[in-house]
Amino acid sequence: MTQEVERWLLTHDGRAHVVELTEAGFQRAITWTVDDEEVASEKTSDDTVTLDGGDHGAVKLKLPTFVGPARRVTWWGGEPGKPALAAATLGIGGLDFDPEPGSKAAEREAWIREHPTQYAVRRTAAAVAGVVVPIVLIWLLGRFALPNIPWPDIPWPKIPWPDWSIPWPTIPWPDWSIPWPEWSLPDWSLPAWLQSLLDLLKYVWPVLLAAALAQREIKRRRDQDARKRAAQLTAADTAQVTEEDSAKRAEAEPQEPDRP
C-alpha cells in the first residue's frame, strides 16, 4: 500500500523549499528539503515541531492532535541579528508555506480564506463544547452514580514489626519568644454579585480566548497573503528592470557593419 505524502511548498529568493509529512505509526516523519537537498528531518508525535536548518533558517509546524493535515507550516530565514531558530520558537514573523494544490490541506486553507467568520464560529463552538461537555458528564455521573458495591473485608495478616525506639538526645534550645504586634485586619468580603461573576468567569474565559485566537489567526493569514503578493510584485519588477537594462545595453553596443 502506497503511503500518502503531505507536501508544503515555498519559493523564496529563487530557492524551492519543500516540507513532506508521512504517517509513521503513532508518529509523523517530517523532511525539509531546499532545492531537492535535505536540510532537516524529524520523527515525532508532538503538536508543534521546529526544524533547525542552519544557514537555511528554521521551519515551524503546527500539527493536529490526532489526524488530518498540518494546520500551518512557517519558514524563518537567517536574517542578520535575528537567529531564525529563536524567532521560530517565539513565533514572530515568518513566511507561510503553501499546501500542495489539490491536497486536503489546500482545501482547508481555501475554505478558511473564503469563510473567515464561519471559521471563527467553529473555533469558538469547539471551545464552548470543551467547557460544557465536562460539566454535563459530571452532572450525569452525579445523577446516575453506580451503586455502592459491598467489597468484602479481607483479613490481611498483621506483620509484627520491631519497636525501633531510639533514645535521641534532647537539646535545650533557648526560648525565642518575640512579642509580635497584633494586626486586626478589617472583616471584608466580596459582594455577592462580584463573587458570582468571578465564578462564571472561569467558564467564560476559554470561550473568549478561543474567539480572540481565531480572529488573530484570520488576521495573520491575511497579512501572510499581503506579504506574498508584495514579494511577487517585487520579483516581477526586478525581472522587468533586468530585461530593460539588457535591452538598453544591447542598443548601446556598436553594431558591426555588414561585410560584403
Please characterize this protein's 3D structure.
The structure is a single chain. Helix 3 (116-143) packs antiparallel against helix 4. The protein has helices spanning 84-90, 104-114, 116-143, 192-252, and strands spanning 5-12, 15-24, 27-34, 37-44, 48-52, 58-62, 72-76, 95-96, 98-99. With 260 residues, it is α+β, with helices and mostly antiparallel strands. The radius of gyration is 33 Å and the shape is elongated. The strands form two sheets. A five-stranded antiparallel sheet has the order 4-3-2-1-9. A four-stranded antiparallel sheet has the order 5-6-7-8. It starts with a strand and ends in an 8-residue tail after the last helix. 41% of the residues lie in helices and 20% in strands.
Q: What topology emerges from the helices and strands here?
A:
Blueprint: E1 5-12, E2 15-24, E3 27-34, E4 37-44, E5 48-52, E6 58-62, E7 72-76, H1 84-90, E8 95-96, E9 98-99, H2 104-114, H3 116-143, H4 192-252
Antiparallel strand pairs: 1-2, 1-9, 2-3, 3-4, 5-6, 6-7, 7-8
Helix pairs in contact: 3-4
